[in-house]
Amino acid sequence: MSRSSGWIVIIVILGILLGMVGGGIMGGLVGMYVAGNAASRDAAPVPQQVRAVTSGQAPVVQNMTVNSASEVIDSVRAVEPAVVTVISNLGGSSFGQGNGQTEASGSGVIISQDGHIITNNHVIEGAQSVFVIYSDGGRADATVIGADPVTDIAVLKVNGKIPAAVSFGDSSALQLGEWVIAIGSPLGNYRGSVTVGVVSGMNRTVQGTAQDGLIQTDAAINHGNSGGPLINLAGQIVGINTLVVRDTPGGDQAEGLGFAVPSNTVRAVAEQLIANGRIEYPFIGISYTEINPQLAAEMNLTSKAGVVVTQITTGSPAQKAGLQARDVVVAINNDKIDENNSLRSLLFKYRVGDTITLSVVRDGKTLPVQVTLVKRPT
Q1: I need a surface site. Which of 75, 219, 324, 330 has the fewest CB within 10 A?
Q2: Which among 328, 279, 283, 6 has a CA at the least distance from the CA of 149?
Q3: Taking the C-alpha atoms of 243, 267, 265 and 320 in order, what is their torsion angle to the nearest 10 degrees?
Q4: Please, are residues 279 and 150 in contact by the beta-carbon 8 Å criterion?
Q5: Of residues 88, 107, 122, 263, which has the active-site annotation?
C-alpha cells in the first residue's frame, strides 16, 4: 500500500471517531432537552396532543394525559360534592305549577354534618320556601335558620344524609396573588362550575352596599354564583362569593372584579345565626373612614393602616371612653387593622358586654382606650 493510501485510511478512521464523539455529544444535548421538556410537561395540569411522524407515513395524533398532582384538581374534587344550588320560591306555595310564581337561584356550601348550609342573604330574601339541589342532582327541602343583610350571609338547614361538608380556612392568612377557586351554579343551570383566579385585593369596600372588609378576586363570578364558596388550594372555605362589579355610575366598564365575604366573618356570623337565629352586633359608637395612602398624606398621618374617627355617637361607649374625632384606631386588643383585617371583622371576635382595648393614635402618640361593647341600636 502506498504512503498516500495510508494517509487516506488514517483520515477516514479519524473521521469515523470524530463522528462517534460528536454524535455522543449531540445525543447527550438532545437527551437533556427532551428531559427538560418532560419535566415541564409533568408540571402542566393539561392534556396534550403529540404528533408522531415517521418517514413515509402520515402524522399520527396521540392523546397523552400528563400525570400531574394538581392541587386545584384535588381541592375541587374534595369540595364540589358539598356545593349546592339554592332555589328560592318568591311567590306561591309550590314550585313548577305555572301559577305565575317566580324563583331565584344561587349557590351554597354545606359546612357541617348536621346539614347546615351557608349562602347569601340576597339569595333567600323574601322566599316563601327554599330547596337545594345537590351536585348529583338530588333535591332536599331547606329551612332558613337565620339571615343577616349587613354581611349578606344566611344559614340554611337540610335533613337527612348529606354528600359532604367543607371546613373554614383563615381568611386573615390570605395573601395577594394567592390562588383561589370559585365553585357554584352560574345562571342556575351550570351546577358545579369551577373558575380559578387569584386574590386581587383585601379589605375592600364596595360603594352602594353596606359591606366592607371584602376579598377581591378575579375568579369569574356570575349571576347564580352568589352564596357559593371561594376556596384555597387546601380545599378550605376562605370566602363566600357575594357580588361582582361590572360597571360604575360613571359608565366605566370592568372585568374580573368579584367580591367575597371573608371566611372569618362568615364563621362568626354563622355561629350566632345557628345559636340564636339572629346577629347581635357589638357596637362602639363611631363613624369612621379607612386609611389609604391619599388620606394618610392629606392628614399627615404616621399610620398607614387603621381607621380615622369622623363622628362619635352621643351616649355611646366611644363617647364614654373619651374617643375624639380625628383619632386613629389602629388595633383592637393588639390585633392590627390592616389590609387583611377590617374593624368590623375584628369586632366580630367579641360579644356584647366584652371590654376591649383600642390602640388609638392621637397627636402622634399611641394611647390604650378601653371600651365596653353594647348591642348595636336598631
Answers
A1: 324
A2: 279
A3: 140
A4: yes
A5: 122
